[in-house]
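Help needed: design a sequence for this.
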């Protein structure tokens, strides 16, 4: 990223207040850094070790680059929320789900349901509680097997053209 602003306006400091998007944040720099304001009143830091300045206004520094939702790879639901003790592993580790965002679809045929369904689950969309159903129905009716129709079929077969 290019170094913005007047290059002669450098201030050697150990602490500087950053005014970015209406929020006041403290930024600590070591003794070998220079802090500079650019045209947008954002602070750019240039260190003596690196030839490129570090721009705190760059969103790539504030959000991890690995996922668009801002959640780092390998994050667990239990890191962000209180989860039940009997929560299955697939709900605690959403990165186990595979098969999302394989190919781009034509925007003309894209729907809101398809847009929501193409997003990979993350820690904010996973369940924190899992209530398993009992297996009474399966145990009782699974022994007898499925119903089998023994009636006579008198309808004519339809031709597939």
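Sure. Designed sequence:
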């Amino acid at each position: 990223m290019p170094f913005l602003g007047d290059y002669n306006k450098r201030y050697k400091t150990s602490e500087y207040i950053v005014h970015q998007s209406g929020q006041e944040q403290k930024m600590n720099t070591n003794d070998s850094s220079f802090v500079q304001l650019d045209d947008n009143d954002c602070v750019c830091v240039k260190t003596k070790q690196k030839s490129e300045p570090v721009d705190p206004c760059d969103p790539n520094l504030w959000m991890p680059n690995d996922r668009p939702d801002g959640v780092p790879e390998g994050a667990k639901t239990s890191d962000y929320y209180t989860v039940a003790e009997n929560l299955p592993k697939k709900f605690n580790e959403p990165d186990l789900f595979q098969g999302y965002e394989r190919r781009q679809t034509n925007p003309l045929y894209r729907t809101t349901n398809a847009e929501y369904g193409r997003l990979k689950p993350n820690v904010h969309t996973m369940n924190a509680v899992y209530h398993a159903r009992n297996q009474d129905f399966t145990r009782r009716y699974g022994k007898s097997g499925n119903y089998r129709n023994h009636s006579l079929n008198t309808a004519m077969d339809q031709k597939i053209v």
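Residues 24 and 85 are 40 Å apart (CA to CA).
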